[in-house]
Amino acid sequence: MAEVTVKQLADTVGRSVDVLLAQMRDAGLSHKAEGDVVSDIEKQQLLAHLKRTHGEQAGEPKKITLQRKTVSTLKTNVVAGKAKTVNVEVRKTRTYVKRSLLEEQEEQAREAAEAARKAQEEAEQQAEAARQAAIEAERRAIEDARIAAAEEEARKAAEEARRQLGGEQKDARKLSVPKIDIKRHETPEERARREEESARERAADEARRKQEEVHRKEAEEKARQKTLEQARRIAEELAGRKDDAPSAADTPLARGLVGKAYEDSFDREDREIKRGGGTPARGAKKGPKKREEQNFRPVQRTLTSALSRQHGFEKPVEKQVYEVTIGESIVVSDLAQKMAKKSREIIRVLMKMGEVVTENQRIDQATAALVVEELGHTAKLVSDTALEDSLMDSLVHHGEATTRAPVVTIMGHVDHGKTSLLDYIRRAKVAAGEAGGITQHIGAYHVETPRGMITFLDTPGHAAFTAMRARGAKATDIVVLVVAADDGVMPQTAEAIDHARASGVPLIVAMNKIDKESVDVDRVLSELSAKQVVCEEWGGDVQVVKVSAKTGQGIDELLEAILIQAELLELTAVSDGPAQGVVIESRIDKGRGAVATLLVQKGTLKKGDLVLAGTLYGRARALVDETGKLVKSVGPSMPVEILGLPDAPGAGDEFLVVADERKAREVAEFRVARDRQLRMDMQQASKLENLFANMGKAEAASVNIILKTDVRGSLEALMAALNDLSTDEVRVKIVSSGVGAITESDVTLAESTGSVVLGFNVRADGAARSKCQNDGIDLRYYSIIYELIDDVKAAMSGLLSPERRENIVGIAEVREVFHSSKFGAAAGCMVLEGSLFRNKPIRVLREDVVVFQGELESLRRFKEDVAEVRHGMECGLAVKGYKDIKAGDKIEVYEVQIIKRSL
Ligand code: GDP
Ligand code: MG
Asked: How far is the centre of ligand 1, averaged over its atoms, from the C-alpha of 519 (Å)?
């Protein structure tokens, strides 16, 4: 296209119309609106202007950017007298600009431009000379040809004369060989003819030579033009100056442009023909024209590309500067892609900064920003939750905040009466007013008291509470801690206290089973105060209410205490506007599909609202309250069941009502992607080796452990020892613990909580083992307490000692036991996995629990002592110092491998 509008041009060059117009104005063009037409000449003018300005910029000095990272340690004394160490990492970036370099570069550019221009002029002179020579040669060739023609004429005339002259000699000449004849008897006429002939031949030769010369010169000139064009382009690129170049029409490129202009007009003509296709005559012309046009195409393309290069719009001389959006973290390869670079280059830059990463590794926002700046682009830092935040921002709640009911979670040690207490309250307070008695269980209910309403979250155990806390959702206002008056503070009691404290939720103690005779109130109170839970009578601020879930004693006082606490908290919420809250529970119902219990925290949830919960969204087809009644809407602090989500959302997921379905989908999709990434990161993080590496990040500042042991005694000992390891910086969190073999559900829990699974004298069953392998869960067996403790300690401090890993090399099952006088008990075994080795340490397992550990007394096959028995074979063995072996026991042979750790 020869002519385009400003808008089109702006689109082609990827600049805004305004910017382009400003540039055009600077270039002295009169364009004002985006619809104005820009001609080729004007384009050239703009181009010249841009080149000039870019030329100025091209002289920009090279900058040197230096990065430095220093890590220092700060020690502070905290109140408890414990020294706290803080690692301080300082990152500095400094850019130096060299002045002399600037001048040097300018000088170089000028010289290069000068040289290129000289080369071009020279080349043009040569080309001119060649052209002159060619013209001269042609002229001479024509001249020669004319002479030759004249000579031919003369020759013909002479021949005619000769024929007339020697008619009588004709016969004689016929008999003789003419040449010899000529030589022997050369007549004047014959000589004239010979000379004439040789002259003609010479002329023809000369003409041919001249012709060849012309061809050669033409080819040479073509080649020279090509070089010329290249030289010119280089010169321009170097100097960024086009206006100094020789007058445009003279240059070969300009000739190319003329060609282009011709083709443009051709193009236009063709288009006109197409448009005017109504007339048959023109339509008929279309065929051959089209073919012709196709023949032209390649030429045109090269010319166009030459032109675009010339223009410098599509491929500017100046480097493209990208604005790179960086979330809270970014994978190296993604970062590379955003800057149109290879991952390798990014890794190299990071390496220079002292960070060794791989392509698929995540780097934090600050580091990524440094890389972006180093590569000369600009970084735009955004929050990962920008998309969600924008959704939240759209949820403005107008109107006055009014008092809302407190949301209460009941926690406490197992068997201290949580369920009984919840059931009693429900029976007494909810069911009392309902004809149908106890209603369905939806995971939450509310009670009305003369002094106000209370909502109880009725989710079993601490799971929901912690799950919600882990997701950052705060559903609970008050924790009621149930402590059995006859049992006192137990591990889970302490855990509940920790959870409540960590989330800043006030506690009320319900001292349950007060009806029992064996109660010791003071002991329980003192145990509580040892955990910094001090009752009001003792000068503390925690309300302790003595209750009985059996007799109902003290229940009203408990509700009263809750309401007093709620008043202190001044709980309010706006009830107008779209609803927002937390998913308490969810399940898939056979008839109704996904059923989710939601706790509305703000606004009002109405039937038909579009609900976005975690990664799911759908319309709330029906709202069901805790008594099974269909309701139209629910306000703050109220639990409600909704139908209509495509799947069961996770307990603890936040939900909100969205006006725009497209937004809902966007956020849901974003969350799905983020969850996937998180899961992958989690798998990485759950390896014990990686724990330290991840500790710099706030959320990983705990070592999560799932602990299974052979007996309760060792479990308690280990738990106590592990809990004592917790420091201010790193917490040891025993996510789950128990006695017995490691099961699949332990591994599932490990996966979801990013825990390592530690087995003390117990083994994983088959399903658990394969799940560990598939999901990359770190599973470790120990038989010495201090080794387990040491490993965890090492993981916490990051000083991983050489790893002492046990590899199980063979497992055999005891089929029969014989009692011999020599060995005591000899076992007939079948090797199930690997091989048994006579000289390697062994353990005897009963139901996946280690019952003995030691070595073999003997290993035999058919009465022969052997060193090894392979998989699938039978053998007889005796265990040194162990007579108690039984059929069904397993013999595990292992070896200890020392692996040097590297982080
Ligand atoms: P949870 O594990 O904390 O949910 O405890 P449960 O509610 O299941 O109660 C465990 C046992 O304690 C049950 O056998 C209850 O009957 C009993 N229990 C609960 N509350 C009381 C109480 O106030 N008094 C008496 N005597 N027994 C109670
Ligand atoms: Mg219970």
From this structure: 14
